[in-house]
Design goal:
The complex is a heterodimer. By secondary structure, chain A is mostly beta strands. Chain A is 0% helix and 55% strand. Chain A is built from no helices and 11 strands. In chain A, the strands form 2 sheets. In chain A, strands 2, 4, 5, 9, 10 and 11 form a 6-stranded mixed β-sheet that branches. In chain A, strands 1-3-8-7-6 form a 5-stranded antiparallel β-sheet, with no helix packed on it. Chain A starts with a strand and ends with a strand. In chain B, strands 2, 4, 5, 6, 9, 10 and 11 form a 7-stranded mixed β-sheet that branches. Chain B has a 4-stranded antiparallel β-sheet with strand order 1-3-8-7, with no helix packed on it. In chain B, a hairpin with a 2-residue loop joins β7 (64-70) and β8. The chains are: A mainly beta, B mainly beta. The interface between A and B is medium-sized, with 21 and 26 residues.
Amino acid sequence: EDQVTQSPEALRLQEGESSSLNCSYTVSGLRGLFWYRQDPGKGPEFLFTLYSAGEEKEKERLKATLTKKESFLHITAPKPEDSATYLCAVYDSGYALNFGKGTSLLVTP
Amino acid sequence: DADVTQTPRNRITKTGKRIMLECSQTKGHDRMYWYRQDPGLGLRLIYYSFDVKDINKGEISDGYSVSRQAQAKFSLSLESAIPNQTALYFCATSSGRASYNEQFFGPGTRLTVL
């Protein structure tokens, strides 16, 4: 059973068009929800950790929020350089980060 | 300077060959991990190590072995490479100060097994 489901799989935005990415999780006893950005052929780059429902974190045009069942990554007025795959992950019952399949974001000028 | 480095960055090998992928880190982290990434399957954990004397299997350890030579070095070996081990391989590290911390990833090794 998938613990982490991300939607949509792909998203195309025009520059300046704000939107949100969704990460739903089904793990008991959440021990952190993690957001990463991955550029093609590169390693995932850590963005945020959220631990408690209601928690929010911001970095430049990105804002991550957390509820008891899902997390959202809000992208405000995106730029072409925000184009990447965004991954979310939670720890499983052990010490492995369980990743979703990601949302591939393309921002066009 | 990169905090987590991986060598080689690209490798093409033949079925049956033994190969080693190496990872070094300057973050001072105790915990190190090896993941592989396949299109459509996402990132999956192969092995992890919490210190030099601690090695643990992950979700997909069959066909792989690891060695933690020092706190800063963690190597992944494919004893007899097969084509379905063609993938992107990532090393990651995390601090051991708390049980469940963010992990920091290296740049990856693209491995092709012919």
